[in-house]
Amino acid sequence: MAFQNGVKEMEPCILVIFGATGDLAHRKLYPALYNLWQGGQLPDPFAVVSIGRREKTTEIVREEVVESVQTFSRNEWEGGGSEDFLQKFYYYQQDFRDEESYDHLQEFLGTLEEEWNTGGNRVYFLAVAPEFFGTISEQLYHHGMAPNEGRSWQRVVIEKPFGQDLESAKELNQVIDRHFSEENIYRIDHYLGKEMAQNIMVLRFANTLFEPLWNNRFVDHVQMTLAETVGVEGRGPYYEESGALRDMVQNHMLQLLALVAMEPPVALDTESVRDEKVKVLRSLDISPDSVVRGQYGEGTRAGEHLPAYRDEERVSSASTVETFVALKVSMENFRWAGVPFYLRTGKRLPRKYSEIIVKFRKLPGVLYFQNETLDSNVLVIRVQPDEGVYLKFNAKQPGTGETIVPVTMDFCQNCMEGYNSPEAYERLLYDVIRGDSTLFTRWDEVEHSWRFVDKIAQFWKGSREDIPIYPSGTWGPVQSELLLREDGRDWLYHLQ
Ligand code: BG6
After folding, report:
1. Is the dihedral of CA 475, 304, 353, 239 positive or negative?
2. Would you please indicate which residues are annotated as catalytic (active-site) residues?
3. Distance, CA of 473 to CA of 490 (rounded, Å)
4. pLDDT value at residue 149
């Protein structure tokens, strides 16, 4: 179970990466595998088959693995000492759209399995565009490579985007579902692999200090910011279809929100946790005037000129796609009725960070709280780049006066000396190999997230207003500030 200390068995297996010549394998998967290997967290035996269309050799792939580890890994490449690690990698050239080629692939994997004695256990990682999920899973099935009745297991890992809306997500799911059962499908949301995302449940359910107050009697509102400084970074065609709503809200933001708002699960096993998350996603509601969108215009940062979204490569010069979203979400359930959850995410904002802020209610207006300027308690869950928890509370200023001042307790996990946080993909790969899907999203979570997101997309479809443009390097359109100001609140900017 991912949220417990209990360790599931690691069994020998082969990891097969479709689309291994892409960015994901290079930036995330190879370094994650290296760090797992260094920490003794890969099964033994274990092998990796990188599949790509280009002509290449295993030797070249091994060189690429070294280069990717040297560039992106949190732990340094150990050189000669890592030879055993490199020996696990193989290249297999295949056009995965070609049905015939799967017989050969099966043969190749069969030979490797004998050589490595991995017993037929396989993880298929589909690092490919979603339109290929169907073809690949179908072919794996038809060639006897999908889950069989025998003693081995085969799991399939898929990356987002999981559809464009509920309809397309359903279609996609049906294709995969025909060939792999839900328990063998691992839908990645890399935010769930982040240390602090995993810490939310512990913070809530392992602390008497927080859990009794975690409801509409004591919480005034919740804020969540997932801010990025980058623009679309050459991903124009993808982003034109997704926008910030589908790129960040449908998955990462709603998953974090579910962890913050869920009821305590009856146990820490995968399905109990997911059951509670689904209930949150089902209870989400929003009105048209609680939605703000924006698109970055040109701007400057540290003297550097930043182009407008519409001037980015392979983006329409008349694009109305949003690069910023702010929402006021309500939750129609007993715990949270009346408590707004303000969410915002955007590209080209002034700084990169992700955090969740729980603002508590004020105490009754006698004794100290007649003083309007006295603020209530604030708890900040810092997801990145700092990982930790920050608590703001009131105390008397030392001296003879009666002044009350805010003071803070700040726990920064990744500031501790010698601490080097594992990357999200390390945790996620580790869990797939162990067969723990707690940190992956179940179909009904995806389904209810889409229902909510489709509702917002519908508001925009019917709107005649032009999309507000915000200068790159600012905190989004002014409407985002107004969304909170109308409620007598403000965004809390990365408290220090
Ligand atoms: C991805 C989005 O899922 O998350 C990207 O597609 C975004 O657009 C990225 O930049 C942000 O992830 P992180 O881990 O850098 O906050």
Report:
1. positive
2. 252
3. 19
4. 67
